[in-house]
Design goal:
This protein has 12 helices and 7 strands. The chain is mainly alpha-helical. The chain is elongated, with a radius of gyration of 37 Å.
């Protein structure tokens, strides 16, 4: 009986082992099929994704290198800084180099024409690096170690999104093939990850996970005002000719002299008259104004200066300057040295108006009398004030002239 029991036990044991091996092979096959099935499904997508990213990166690389070559010649900047500056320019112009070129060309032509009108054509200078410095600030202080490849990879990810086919769910599910320890040891999770990585095209890992942090580039605040906004403001604030002529008459009566012989202090009084009138349109009272040591009227800042106060103050100063210029025009005194000194005193306290352009030329019909416009020379920025002194002239360019603003 004992022998019969042993034989039966061995037979049973042999049968059980065969069953275990069969089930082990079946589970190993299922695991292999799961892995290869996932790879077969994902690899075509990965190939297509990398083809698209390569195209985007190649175009971005060409654009960045072209921008650096044409717009950023400063040898004191590192290659990484130049790359970051180029990317910032692209971001600000719809990621199209043709938009950057057009923006520069428009600004160049406007300044070129204005320089000619101000008789500064021989000193005119506005190159592509000037355009960059007009747009971005503190270029030499940019702290970045991102390479050209880092930046183009980031741009591709921003455009296409990340490659999100992760095998982690499959790997986590494979633990079931470990059974209760009676099977052979299955491949580890790291082994499976390496197997999958080796089976997919290289470079995919750069297109998922956390992106490298990109340092911010400070934009230069554009304090200029577009033509439409300035036209609207002038309609709201415009001082009538009769108001200004009345103010001029009072100053002339007090001094017993005509405007051509006024001193700088007289033109400051003219500015103050326009300032007070314009401030009244924003409900500023006399006790909210005071005089500087130079006798110039100004608004008293409240304890908590908010955006509304700053905006209204800017408009008041624009209106006052417009009144000063119109006073000089109505008195035929725009050639007076003292009037020019007053213009130079106040012109830098008002924002520049953007030069209106049409077909690459200054649109003289859109220039606003009494507004400040700006160009660039080898000595720096130069400003001029447009005065429409001959509005009945047939050609818009002949309807006025620019007053050169003394520095």
């Amino acid at each position: 009986m004992g022998l019969g029991f042993l034989r039966t036990a061995l037979i049973a044991g042999g049968t059980a082992a065969e069953i275990i091996r069969k089930e082990e092979r079946e589970r190993e096959k299922n695991l292999r099929d799961s892995l290869t099935g996932w790879i077969d499904k994902v690899k075509p997508r990965a190939d297509e994704y990398l083809t698209k990213t390569a195209k985007i990166k190649r175009k971005a690389k060409d654009n960045i290198e072209q921008i650096i070559s044409q717009y950023i010649p400063d040898d004191n900047l590192s290659k990484q800084q130049k790359v970051r500056i180029a990317v910032a320019l692209m971001n600000d112009h719809g990621n199209k180099i043709e938009n950057i070129n057009k923006a520069y060309q428009d600004k160049y032509m406007g300044m070129r024409r204005l320089a000619d009108d101000l008789k500064q054509g021989s000193n005119f200078k506005y190159d592509k690096y000037d355009f960059v410095k007009d747009s971005l600030m503190n270029l030499s202080s940019i702290k970045t170690n991102l390479t050209l490849d880092d930046q183009t990879t980031r741009m591709a990810r921003m455009q296409l999104g990340d490659f999100n086919a992760s095998p982690e769910g499959l790997i986590a599910g494979s633990k079931m093939y470990g059974g209760l320890g009676i099977f052979r040891k299955p491949p580890s999770e790291d082994d499976m990850r390496n197997m999958i990585k080796m089976s997919l095209p290289p470079g995919l890992d750069k297109f998922s996970g956390a992106m490298p942090e990109m340092v911010q580039v400070q934009r230069k605040e554009d304090a200029s005002i577009d033509t439409f906004s300035m036209q609207k403001l002038m309609r709201d604030l415009e001082l009538t000719d009769s108001q200004i002529q009345k103010n001029n008459a009072e100053i002339a009566k007090k001094n017993k002299t005509d405007a051509s012989k006024w001193k700088l202090s007289d033109w400051v009084n003219s500015y103050n008259n326009a300032f007070r009138t314009t401030a009244g349109k924003f409900n500023f009272k006399d006790d909210e104004m005071s005089f500087s040591d130079d006798g110039i009227l100004m608004l008293n800042a409240p304890g908590d200066v908010g955006e509304t106060f700053r905006e209204n103050k800017k408009k008041v100063m624009i209106g006052a300057f417009q009144g000063l210029v119109k006073a000089g025009m109505l008195a035929n005194a725009t050639n007076s040295d003292q009037f020019m000194a007053a213009v130079g005193t106040f012109a830098n306290s008002v924002p520049v108006t953007q030069t209106p352009m049409i077909n690459g030329n200054v649109n003289y019909s859109k220039l606003i009398s009494g507004s400040v416009y700006e160009t660039n020379t080898s000595q720096g920025k130069v400003k001029g004030v447009w005065t429409r002194t001959n509005p009945n002239a047939e050609e818009a360019k002949d309807q006025g002239e620019f007053i050169f603003v003394p520095r």
